[in-house]
Amino acid sequence: MLYVVIAFLWTAILLYLLLGGADYGAGIIELFTSENNKAQTRKTLYRAIGPVWEANHMWLIITIVILFVGFPDIYSRMSINLHIPLTIMLLGIIARGTAFTFRHYDAVVDDMQHLYNKIFAYSSFVTPFFLGIIAGSAVSGKIDPAATDFLSAYVFSWLDWFSVAVGLFTVTICGFLAAIYLIGETDNEKEKKMFVSKALRLNIAAVVCGGLVFIAATLEGIPLLEWVFGNAIGLTAIIAATLSLALLWFLLFKGGIGWIRLLAGFQVTMILFTTTVRHFPNIVILKNGGYLSLLEHRGHDKTIEALGWALLLGSIFILPALFYLIYSFQRKRIDVH
């Protein structure tokens, strides 16, 4: 049952990156859209993410619950040493959701709409940035359980070049996913070309930021190159992601959009897979060679068993309802067109 819980944990992280990340990417796209195109872009963004944007936070909640219940040592260590980026990320989620709601449903249309738009766009950048920082910090080896001063324990555990580079990489990935997803959400050819252009630029930005991640890892003494290219599984995943990216752009420039979402999701899945499989089951790498393992630092066996059954049974009820929600709004869009 332990491996069932771990599978749910990894899947929840992946789905939050793919679905919640695309929602953040919508705000990132708005942030970097010219004033002349922002009004139309906002309409497309709202039509695309409006029905399900809150539902995507379910995956983050599941991740937190699994760590809290099943792996309390890991949860407590991360929530203590990384409480600053975690707090900023959570404040970003709240600010983004509040601004998204108020700018569409505020009874009074006035200058506050401009403030809501800015809060939505900037928090859409800040939130995945600090999500990436948290992810980078977990494997950077900078978390020091023996730290005796504030800066060492709560600042330098996450404020380093590697974590910042991972944060920027996460932002560009979210923007890329959103641009790819949004291409199929509009019938306006001009807008489609704009999203294609943004997808290309964000893809280039992701490659550059990915390079910065490797450079920062080398400077910080993190064996990222070995994790990614030092085993057949990771190397195969990277090759598959690269080939799928080439196929994605071939289909895109040929005018086919049916498979590009799946291909973009596949690439992100391969990136996450290759960066986690090498040091599994160690989910947190501590300073001076320590680690927190999903196998060694789990909760009581009965707790893990109960958690596993709860996840299995819960998915029977939750997943069909979620798919039906998405299906219903997709049907509504088709009927409107």
TrEMBL record:
EC number: 1.10.3.-
Origin: domain of life: Bacteria
Annotated InterPro entries: Cyt-d_oxidase_su2
Top class in the EC scheme: oxidoreductase
Subcellular location field: Cell membrane
PANTHER family cross-referenced by the UniProt entry: CYTOCHROME BD2 SUBUNIT II
Name recorded for this polypeptide: Cytochrome d ubiquinol oxidase subunit II
Organism: Arcticibacter svalbardensis MN12-7
